[in-house]
Amino acid sequence: MKRFVRRAVVTAALIAVPTMVGAPAFAAATAETPKKKPAVAVDQVAYETEVVKLTNAERTAAGCQALRIDNRLIASARAHSTDMANTRTMSHTGSDGSNFVTREVRAGYPKRDAAAENIAYGYKSPQQVVTAWMNSSGHRKNILNCASTEIGVGVVFTSSGTPYWTQNFGRGKG
């Protein structure tokens, strides 16, 4: 009898999980879990990698070389996205007064190679954020700047599931 009850609870919990393909957040209901804000269930690295893929597709279509991923630029981008998510602000100026060059240098990237930064919030998928950036002249210019050679992307979610995006560009030689 206990095995049947346990199986029924597990089955009910699995049925209660929404199946929203591409949705960045979802909440799973179980018999023991009280109702809470949605838990973020996104593969951060997969989202960041998809932004790089989509960015490189735009660049190569425009005749630029694909960007190489740089771990220092990823660290800088994630740190800035975390800062924006924690302060619920969207700004190129960090809560400590830093700019993208300062943040890239903090992450170990050479100052002379710091190139540009794109930021956004609220876009639920990599495709949405890259589309928004491509529809904005300044962001598009950063993406299609053929002098940039490296990239790092960071996405961080607030406790309520709002994504904050940062895309850092560099001109390093690899």
Q: Can you walk through the features of this model?
A:
This protein is α+β, with helices and mostly antiparallel strands. The protein is built from six helices and six strands, in the order αββαβααβααββ. The strands form two sheets. It has a four-stranded mixed beta sheet, sandwiched between helices. Strands 1-2 form a two-stranded antiparallel sheet. β5 and β6 form a beta hairpin. α2 packs parallel to α5 and α3 packs across α4. The radius of gyration is 19 Å and the shape is globular.
TL;DR of this structure?
By secondary structure, the protein is an alpha+beta fold. It is built from six helices and six strands.
Keywords:
alpha+beta, two-stranded antiparallel ribbon, 6 helices, 174 residues, 4-stranded mixed beta sheet, 17% strand, 42% helix, globular, 6 strands, CAP_sf, CAP domain-containing protein
Structural class determined from secondary elements: alpha+beta
How far from one another are the termini? Answer: 63 Å
Q: So how many helices?
A: 6
| Main β-sheet, spatial strand arrangement | 3-5-6-4
| SSE pattern | HEEHEHHEHHEE
Signal peptide: 1-27
Domain SCP: 53-169
Keywords: Signal
Protein name: CAP domain-containing protein
List the helices and strands and how they pair.
Blueprint: H1 2-16, E1 25-26, E2 39-40, H2 44-61, E3 68-69, H3 71-87, H4 100-106, E4 114-121, H5 126-134, H6 137-143, E5 150-157, E6 163-170
